[in-house]
Amino acid sequence: METYLAVDIGGTRLRAASYPADGIQPIEQSRIPTRVVGSSPVQRIIDQVKKVWPKDSSVRAIGVAAPGPIDTDKGIIYSAPNIPGWENLPLRDLLEDVFHVPVRLGNDANMAALGEWKYGAGIGHNDVLYFTISTGIGGGVISAGRLLVGAWGLAAEVGHVTIDPNGPLCGCGIRGHLEAFSSGTAIARYVASELADGVPSILPASPAPTTLEIAAAAHNGDPLAKAAFDRAGYYLGLGVANYLHIFNPSILIFGGGVSRAGGLLFDPMRAALKSQVLSPAYVDRLAVAQAALGDDGGLLGALALARSG
Amino acid sequence: METYLAVDIGGTRLRAASYPADGIQPIEQSRIPTRVVGSSPVQRIIDQVKKVWPKDSSVRAIGVAAPGPIDTDKGIIYSAPNIPGWENLPLRDLLEDVFHVPVRLGNDANMAALGEWKYGAGIGHNDVLYFTISTGIGGGVISAGRLLVGAWGLAAEVGHVTIDPNGPLCGCGIRGHLEAFSSGTAIARYVASELADGVPSILPASPAPTTLEIAAAAHNGDPLAKAAFDRAGYYLGLGVANYLHIFNPSILIFGGGVSRAGGLLFDPMRAALKSQVLSPAYVDRLAVAQAALGDDGGLLGALALARSG
């Protein structure tokens, strides 16, 4: 039997699973913390792969979803924000030397996009725009049936685009990125700043409310909490309109914790979108969906990558 | 001998040419005005194609660069800004019915991108970002060796992206698009507005200076004229940084009249770009070039499209 292995390297969790040639039901799976004192993350990946390795050694390829920017051609992780020491790490070659099967690497947000396209909300589409909105904003693009990676694997940084040069600083240090307006961090920061300015709210100024608490307050009618989501949704609409003009996708897929806020975020997004598209043709047939794979998106994208050879 | 025909439908000029299987030296070519009283543009296209049709009837395909958004799958021109009556025009079928060879349609800015990639400044690259900066800003994207068209042919409207929602109105009616900051029209409008406000300049308030006159004044050291190009270049840098993060191209190609302003526009663009990229990896190996094909870009892109079947 042909087997394909998938690995998802999260900042905190490390997952591996084995799959048959078709379908998304794992044969074996395992998850452990990514970082433990006294054990290197690379060694832990190798151990995890061994744990799910089939007895018949029928593995055709290994797909790996890894954090941070990746040179997909060379199989090198440029850097991984949450894993100290991972700088220009040749993970593909390291794993191929151990396992002697083809290893394919992809950025985790790109892999989630690939997973949703192949096995989730994007099935049947050829032009897919996937956003994950959580503490940051990431995503991936399927264009004409292929994952967009760019010349050196650095494409599809969909949260790091300026939509207002006078806006707040982004986590990356550049001002006015989409992520600085519409991520969970941005929503929480906006509310904290308004509370500090004395804007009335049922939310306490201290400890600073989380995005989840702000969503709950908004559902309870708190005007500041609602304004925070209105603002995030408005800017998300500006950003999405730009992407419609750039990619003309047939479906938008939203994943990540903040996207579970639903209408709080997406009603103002849709309103902005409506006024910001060049022509109704961009939205008339456009599907909008929630991610279907949840936390498995990255792993299943790595599976799709493994099977893509 | 195999022959390929290319047609470039401009708002004012209509060009057609025939080519052999390789190279960009035309066998025959012809150009006439697009619109003449008493003659339909479609009939004029048919006449032009007949004019360059080879005697041996060896035509393999016809490529057409047409203005406005196009459904490339169905070969329909949604609308053409400068040609009244062209709404949902099935130009591909109309031409195939007359000539009985495959006809392929592309948007003119996309075709210029394709032409530059195949035969001009982009040769050898797989990820190309092409901008034409003239009265407006258009362009095209080659991603992983394929022209980006999107689900319904509406992609790559690279000038119509919001980079400052508080910015000036764009020609399309939406506020703060890249085109509203960095096109020739935007530069001229900014100068006119500053002159009306009494900002000192060697430029006269009336008649309103053209972009060419503003460029000449900037070369002569006029502070307002220089400020106008600095502003256009700064916003162009913001826009280009976004596109680097989105597409990670290996080359930027600039065409169009305003791009001939050279350093006036591109020095401030480069300065902005430097401070706006997520990582030096986006620009370290990035090539930046002037378009090589000039006015022939659209026609040669149509040729590339004809040969692509």
Multimeric status of the protein: homodimer
SSE topology string of chain A: EEEHEEEEHEHEEEHHHHEHEH
The dominant shape of chain A is globular
Mean pLDDT, all residues of chain A: 95
Low-pLDDT parts of chain A are none
Largest sheet of chain A: 5 strands, mixed
- Strand runs of chain A, count: 13
- DSSP strand (E) fraction of chain A? 15-25%
Give the helix proportion of chain A (percent range): 25-40%
End-to-end span of chain A in angstroms? 17 Å
Describe the strand arrangement of the main beta sheet of chain A, using strand numbers: 3-2-1-4-8
Radius of gyration of chain A: 20 Å
Topology overview:
Two copies of one chain form a homodimer.
Chain A: E1 3-9, E2 13-19, E3 28-33, H1 41-52, E4 59-66, E5 70-71, E6 76-79, E7 87-89, H2 91-99, E8 103-107, H3 108-119, E9 128-133, E10 137-143, E11 146-147, H4 179-182, H5 184-196, H6 211-219, H7 223-247, E12 251-255, H8 263-276, E13 287-290, H9 297-307
Parallel strand pairs in A: 1-4, 4-8, 9-12, 12-13
Antiparallel strand pairs in A: 1-2, 2-3, 5-6, 6-7, 9-10, 10-11
What does this structure look like?
The structure is a homodimer of 309-residue chains. With 309 residues, chain A is an alpha/beta fold. Chain A has nine helices and 13 strands. Chain A has helices spanning 41-52, 91-99, 108-119, 179-182, 184-196, 211-219, 223-247, 263-276, 297-307; strands spanning 3-9, 13-19, 28-33, 59-66, 70-71, 76-79, 87-89, 103-107, 128-133, 137-143, 146-147, 251-255, 287-290. In chain A, strands 3-2-1-4-8 form a five-stranded mixed β-sheet, sandwiched between helices. A five-stranded mixed β-sheet of chain A has the order 11-10-9-12-13, covered by helices on one side. In chain A, strands 5-6-7 form a three-stranded antiparallel β-sheet. In chain A, α5 (184-196) runs antiparallel to α7, α6 (211-219) crosses α7 and α7 crosses α8. Chain A is globular, with a radius of gyration of 20 Å. The two termini of chain A are 17 Å apart. At the A-B interface, α7 of A face α7 of B.
